[in-house]
Design brief:
Number of helices: 5
Strand order of the largest sheet: 1-2
Strand content: 5-15%
Distance between the termini: 49 Å
Helix content: 40-55%
Structural class: mainly alpha
Shape: elongated
Largest sheet: 2 strands, antiparallel
CATH superfamily of the domain at 32-95: PAS domain
CATH class of the domain at 32-95: Alpha Beta
Order of helices and strands: HEEHHHH
Length: about 100
Amino acid sequence: MPPPPQPPSPSPELGSQRHESFHLLVDSVVDYAIFMLDPTGRVLTWNGGARRIMGYEASEIVGQPFSRFDAEEDVVAGKPARELAEAVERPWRSR
């Protein structure tokens, strides 16, 4: 018996539309701070909820280390580094 036919691959335009729709959805969330970090802990994305809750405009925080959210004594004690290591080990975890 031949294998069932495969659905057509999505066009690049459809992928781009989905990507844009996702970003619009995330940016419209105002009750939760949603942001992405790179593997070194620098802020990559910043939504409207993050702006409202954390008090930073995207232009102020994107590209900055996420350790800016911690008190100086926590940074000295290595708390941001431990949190980043845990996030790398378990990326599905959210706070």
